[in-house]
Amino acid sequence: MHRLFARQRDKATKPNGEVDLDVLGQLVAEAYEQTDRDHRRADRSINLMVEELDQLNRALEARVSEGTVALGHREAELRTQNLRFDAALNNMSQALLMFDASARMEIVNKRYCEMYGLSPHDIKPGMTLQELLSIRKSMGMFAGDPEEYTSELRDLMTRGDSVTQYIDVPDGRTVAICNSPMPDGGWVATHEDITERRRAEEIIAHMAHHDSLTDLPNRVLFQERLADTLLNAKSGHHRLAVFYLDLDNFKAVNDTLGHPFGDELLKRVAGRLRACVHENITVARVGGDEFALILPDLADIGEAATLAQRICQAIREPYDLLGHVVVTETSIGIAVAPDNGFLPDELLKNADMALYRAKADGRGTFRFFAPEMDATIKARRALENSLREALYQGQFTLHYQPIMNLDDNRIICCEALIRWNHPQRGMVAPGEFIPIAEEMGLIVAIGEWVLRQACADAATWPNNTKVAVNLSPIQMLNARLVPVVIGALASAGLPASRLELEITESVLLQNTEATVAALYQLRSLGVRISMDDFGTGYSSLSYLRRFPFDKLKIDRCFISDLSKDDEDGLTIVRSVTALAKSLGMVTTAEGVETEEQMDLVRAVGCTEVQGYFVGRPQPLKDVSRLLVAALPPQAKSA
Fewest CB within a 10 Å sphere: which of 2, 55, 316, 511? Predict the structure, then answer.
């Protein structure tokens, strides 16, 4: 400041050394203004510095604050993560534990305590695995030795081997334990209750090897057991038997009553088969209505025969299926190892051949395999193939056997009897092909053809002669029977009163309510109903109460040996005719072959006779000539 004034004073001094006061005053004023400007400039610089320092301080404070907030956030995130970890750990479906290298527990979740019924207060981090297992053992939740188990597990973990164990807990559960080593020498263990999974796996395995309907072993399991049994038998020099069974006329049950009834029948049959055998005998369902069993350690052939008889008897007892009485039988083929082979497929094939033979011999029985059966089975199968074509190629024909009225010795009815005119074998008897047709399910179609043809033929006969047609049990069970009969009558223009339908009592054993209803419906149309082979069954009389038959046909077994010295036979026939008369029924004696027999049945009260003495079964043209010949002369000329 002094230097500034000195410079201003020098500027105001005149050359003569005098100071010009005006100039000096002006210069001093300027100097003050300059100084004032310099101060303001300095103030501004200071203010700027202060502002910069203030901004710096605020920035530093902000950074410190941000750091504090970030640290808080990190701490909060860590707390959240810990909560999430605890939540995840304690809500796992698996139990989890972590052990250090000295087998001390570092982590355990709640699921572990829940799984073994442990108190969380007793299970603390820091306790050893051996101590933990000792607690479980005291509670009945560990069956092993805690010290031995711990030692073995530590050895495995030390070697770095992961190991999974399946342990059955004493309370019946199964637990899968997975132990996985960690780099620091410790390990992580997970425990999972797999009881339900195991049960599901067992159920799936059971379903894969058992029939879903009957719960019997299926074909796969049967063949496995047969192979194992054969191996054991071969090593021990034992014999065994293989049974192959199927139900007779099972298809008819399915076709007439429906598959639910067929399924129920199969379940009932399976139950009876189980009841017939011991636990060491395998019984399996190997097909639709086919069953098989293995009889190991066979002492002798008689043992197999006895079992087969017991099974046949058990199966043929009537079944009550929701109010429907069903009767079925089983045919059985038996092959014995090593006599008939020592390979599973070979034994089954031979047992199947023996089954075919049992069916051919009348069904409801059993047969042992014999080498000559191979040719027989091939012939049977050839016959089946031919039978499939016979109906469509017109190979069937009808013969008719006369039935005579004993009051006037007039032929009043002819029974239709089917014949098969085989292109190579000639005439095939019904007894040979009808059982096969029933088994193959062809009998319904064949039966419908017989009805139509018999009605058409009878419509050409004179003198209102009736025609009798036999119905098989399978036909009678068919829901279309009544419409088929109506159609046959209408197509032929034959009055219903000229048709007689013959049934056996075995028909009434099947589906009783529906059968009786169908019979009443047919009778209401005017069709006459006859019970054929009366007296051969164990319940014939009971069926006379269920349905009022028009006619009883006395079976030929009561007539064929009848003579005047046969008092018992005559008494039986006399009793049947008296019973029928009291019930308003006609009686027909079947199998009359001599004049003596005809006189005897006439004397005891029979109404009609049928048999070789009256006439053999004959083609339509012959029976038509017979009927015309029996007409009065005036009727012939007309």
Answer: 2
